[in-house]
């Protein structure tokens, strides 16, 4: 019985680590880009209409960088720091900005940084960068939820097998008593 439970557990774990890891990564990346786009849309509206109150539209997990193409300057709207290499990478992609968000990734060592670029007007471009901590917390929450569901399923299978075995033992004991 324990061997059956162990085999089921191992098969679920192999399934998770072999097949679902890439799916979870892709799902997390897609969801983070959606969060970036929502934040970008609100910041874009503030930049187009009311630049003074921009702080109320910002998510603390996302860093927004506004590029002025006329003056060739950039303004970081959040107090979070970003590396110079990332600023250079984003600056090289500013020319590709359109009225629709374009998504990019940048590998900073072992860390994958997600960012999105959108043109506000002909002279201004908004780049939004996702905080990696937020992305990892989201991924860990999904992974932990899957593991909890997996353990719940295995517990139910264990209980069903225990009931089945106990249901079989009672008639076998009655047969043994009858024979004796």
Write up this protein.
With 180 residues, the protein is of the alpha+beta class. Helix content is 59%, strand content 19%. The chain contains three helices and five strands, in the order H-E-E-H-E-E-E-H. The chain has helices at residues 2-49, 84-93, 132-179; strands at 62-68, 73-76, 102-108, 111-119, 124-130. The chain has a five-stranded antiparallel beta sheet with strand order 2-1-5-4-3, with helices on both faces. The two termini are 28 Å apart. The model has no long low-confidence stretch (mean pLDDT 79).
Terminal-residue CA separation:
28 Å
Largest beta-sheet characterization: 5 strands, antiparallel
The level of helicity is 55-70%
> H/E series, N to C?
HEEHEEEH
Q: What value does the Rg take, in angstroms?
A: 27 Å
What is the tally of helical segments?
A: 3
Q: In total, how many beta strands?
A: 5
**Global geometry:** rod-shaped
Strand proportion, as a percent range, falls in 15-25%
Spatial ordering of strands, largest sheet: 2-1-5-4-3
Give the low-confidence spans. Answer: none
The overall pLDDT, averaged over residues, is 79
């Amino acid at each position: 019985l324990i061997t059956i439970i162990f085999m089921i557990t191992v098969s679920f774990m192999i399934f998770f680590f072999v097949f679902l890891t890439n799916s979870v990564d892709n799902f997390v990346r897609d969801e983070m880009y959606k969060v970036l786009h929502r934040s970008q849309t609100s910041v874009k509206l503030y930049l187009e209409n009311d630049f003074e109150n921009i702080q109320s539209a910002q998510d603390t997990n996302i860093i927004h960088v506004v590029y002025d193409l006329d003056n060739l300057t950039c303004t970081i709207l959040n107090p979070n720091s970003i590396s110079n290499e990332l600023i250079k990478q984003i600056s090289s992609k500013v020319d590709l900005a359109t009225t629709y968000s374009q998504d990019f990734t940048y590998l900073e060592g072992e860390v994958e940084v997600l960012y999105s670029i959108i043109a506000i007007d002909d002279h201004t471009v908004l780049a939004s960068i996702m905080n990696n901590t937020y992305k990892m917390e989201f991924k860990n929450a999904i992974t932990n939820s899957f593991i909890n569901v997996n353990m719940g399923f295995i517990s139910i299978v264990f209980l069903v097998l225990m009931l089945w075995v106990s249901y079989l033992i009672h008639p076998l004991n009655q047969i043994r008593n009858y024979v004796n």
